[in-house]
Amino acid sequence: MQGVVEQVKPAVEVQDPLHIWTALHSADEAKAWVEHHLAASRACISELLAVTGARTLENTLVPYDRAGWHLRMAGSQSGVMFMVHPLAEVRDAAQQLSQVIGAESVALSLNLDVYHALSAIDISTNAADAATRYYIERALLGYRLSGVDKDEPTRNRIRVLADRMTHLSMSFSRTVQDDVRSITIDTVADLLGLPQDYLTRHGVRSVASPAASGTMQLEADTPVTLTTDPPEMTPVMTYAASPQLRRRMYLAYNDRGYPANKQVLLDLLSAREEMAALLGFRSWADLATVDQMMGSAANMRTFLNEVQAAARETAQHEFAELEAFVRDRDPGALPLTLSDARYWEEQFRRAHYDFDSQSVRPYFPYEQVEAGILATAGKLFGVSFVRAENAAVWSPAVKTFDVIDNDASSPDHGAPVGRIYLDMHPREGKSKWFSECSLVCGVLGLQLPEASLVCNFPQPKRDPDNPQNDDAGLMQYSDVVTCFHEFGHLMHEVLGGRQRWAGQSGIATEGDFVEVPSQMLEEFFEDPELVRTFARHYQTGEPIPHDVFARMVRASAHGRALGTLTQVMYATYSLDTHDKRAAGLDLDALLRAGYDRFSFYEFVDGNRMYAAFTHLVGYTSNYYTYLYDKVMALEFFAEFKQPGPETLIDSATAMRYRREVLEPGGSKPARELVKSFLGREVSMSALRRWISREFGAQ
Predict the structure, then answer these.
(1) 205, 222, 254: which is the final residue of a domain?
(2) Cα separation, 186 vs 220, whole angstroms
(3) Could you tell me if residue 299 is inside a domain?
(4) What Å distances lie between residue 16 and 19, 28, 34, 42, 445, CA to CA?
(5) pLDDT class for 269, splitting at 50, 70, 90?
(6) Looking at the DSSP assignment, which residues form a beta bridge with residue 423?
(7) How far apart are CA 591 and CA 586, in angstroms?
(8) Which residues are CB-contacts of 324 (< 8 A; sequence separation ≥ 6)?
């Protein structure tokens, strides 16, 4: 298959124009690879601008789309290398290159000649189908929102601000990425309650107590050091019996990025505010939503108020139950603080639902979960995953799979439709978040899409000298849900990545639709027959018992309303920071006010989570997307649960979902995708059922 990169003459010789990491051993090689794509993009724009005569799709939109493909390649792969590359020198170069690429993108978005050329295309021809017309309309809207029609001094200021925002955003993310905090435990008894495999991993032994028959105590030869990496932080917050340890870990985790990122964030908010004003908007939040499904900051506030109203009564009931439980068990633990939340929720679930989340961890060793999700996605979407053993990767820990189309009705039946890369475990210098990243933008008939997962799940470890010390990388229930979530993004990227136009390939929908496929796939984790295909005890091979699974699902529903209010708080904080005047904005006071308004738990002084809240960089004001898309995801999943003889995973609904929601990529407005699949507009009814626990019980 001919690749897009073969359509242009390279300005710089690189070994593999499709993959920056193939021979990436230095900053110079990274720069050469990026410069190749920037030069190719410029060449496409020069070709476009050299046209004399009538503007057509072939002489104008084709080179414009190719230029965008090269910019996207440069931006996405340098961004991923910034997140994952083992060499600090390369990560530094990727950070600097992202600013160069950003400046190139801004220059294109402010190119008045290109705007006029696109505007002059006759879209009434037969060649301009609905997807093409939509593409041109969105491109022209993007140009207007970038300020292309402003005077030259304004456009120059926009360039300066855009470059500054890119620099500040990368600086914010890099600080969080590199800032791994640690705490040292001198009193090993503080580790009581943590899983045995976790203790063993940190050199802690359980021994019989000489003072009291039948009891156990912990011993360690040296002080134990724990980091804020997710596989070490999450078990502490969930299982550690010591409130002091939980509080120390909570503050260490929420202090990442501070103090440096506080001023960086304020500077970023100020730059965004000025940018919005230059473009004629009241605030950045209005600018960031005008081309989204939401439409405006006012609509966002209305939506968040509706979600809050739907969740508050149930949340009050949940917290009252929890508070009464703690008062009965340990009155001294009251009032409950934010650092207590996960632990006491866990204790409540054990008592009221006879469910201990530690009890299911042995059924979720990482390798089995990975295989299970690949099998689930394969059956659901009509594909299979074939290991690409010889594919070049940026770390030996990365696994690569070719995605093969198994749908007998597809013209690509039996052929590869994309490639995925799984980078699933923590390592030094790597991003600490969980995310899906585009690598190679697909184009129908020219280039297959490629994408990656960048995650931080527990890593299995083998001890060849003493198999008893093997670590299976046992995952928590919430880890597995996160894995399903990210894989939903991945399938959207691949299956939606075969459009005629690169600008519509992959996850190219409105930004506030992108979390729908990921959150929809999460819901499949509540199907027992599906989960039992891979949830097997890592030592005995026994499938997770039906009664244990049923208790797990019931227990997981408790706290949904409280969790929903937390999401409303995050979304409101993201909105307020971008909808208020940056001058005089008190990030700490705003955070405290948000927790006081939406959370029933007491605020922990010293919580500065905004300094590591990287969604403020990526989603800016639009964190509401998670809640907005949850509404749609639950409505979508309800379609799979319609009465009938078919199982969830084998239903005809799954292939209809692939065709009508995933495969169109960004070739249609998101509202059309919703109406096509549901046959109607969405409502809040499924969210209300889910919050009130009726949904999970159906």
Answers:
(1) 254
(2) 10
(3) no
(4) 6, 15, 12, 20, 20
(5) very high
(6) 454
(7) 9
(8) none
**Residues 56-90 pLDDT 10s:** 999 999 999 999 999 999 999 999 999 999 989 99
Residues 370 and 481 in one domain: yes
CATH number of the domain where residue 77 is located: 1.20.1050.40
| Closest to 590 in 3D by CA, of 94, 603, 331, 296 | 603
Q: What's the Cα-to-Cα distance from 400 to each of 110, 393, 407, 415, rounded to whole Å? A: 38, 8, 22, 17
**Tens-place pLDDT, residues 503-530:** 999 999 999 999 999 999 999 988 898 9
Q: Interhelix angle for 260-278 vs 560-579, to 10°?
A: 60
C-alpha span between 272 and 283 (Å, rounded): 8
- Work out the end-to-end distance of the chain between its first and last CA atoms, rounded to an integer number of angstroms: 47
Please state, in angstroms and as integers, the Cα–Cα distance from residue 434 to each residue in 171, 208, 353, 399, 557, following that order: 19, 39, 29, 16, 23
- Reported as a pLDDT band with limits 50, 70 and 90, residue 643 is low
With tokens 């198994």, the residue in question is 406
Residue 627 has pLDDT above 90, yes or no: yes
Whether the predicted model's global pTM rises above the 0.85 cut:
yes
Residue 132 shares a structural domain with residue 199: no
For the stretch 224-233, pLDDT in tens is: 999 999 999 9
Distance (Å, whole) CA 504 – CA 449:
12
Do residue 9 and residue 141 come from a single domain? yes
147: left (phi over 0), alpha (psi -120 to 50) or beta: left
d(CA 117, CA 121): 7
Please name the residue that has the structure tokens 């997962």: 453
Do residues 201 and 96 both lie within one domain?
Answer: no
SS (H, E, C) 524-559: HHHCHHHHCCCCECCCCCCECCHHHHHHHHHHHHCC
**Domain carrying residue 140:** 4-109+111-146
pLDDT in tens, 173-218: 999 999 999 999 989 999 999 999 999 999 998 876 665 555 668 8
Each residue of 132-146: pLDDT tens digit? 999 999 999 999 999
Domain shared by 645 and 498, yes or no: yes
Residue with tokens 């027992």: 528
Q: Which amino acid is at 465?
A: D
Question: Does 476 reside within a domain?
Answer: yes
Q: Phi and psi dihedrals of 207, rounded to 5?
A: -130, 155
Calpha distance 419→627 (Å, rounded):
30
What is the tally of structural domains in the chain?
A: 3
Cα 200–chain centre separation: 31
Q: Which pLDDT band holds residue 694 (cuts at 50, 70, 90)?
A: very low
Nearest Cα residue to 431 out of 94, 22, 102 = 94
66 in Cβ contact with 4 (< 8 Å): yes
Q: Please tell me the number of Cα atoms within 13 Å of 244 on its side-chain side.
A: 9
For the record, the structure tokens of 160 come out as: 């300066």
CA angle 147, 152, 158 (to 5 degrees): 45
User: Mean pLDDT over all residues of the chain?
Assistant: 92
Do 74 and 201 reside in the same domain of the chain?
A: no
pLDDT at 644: 62
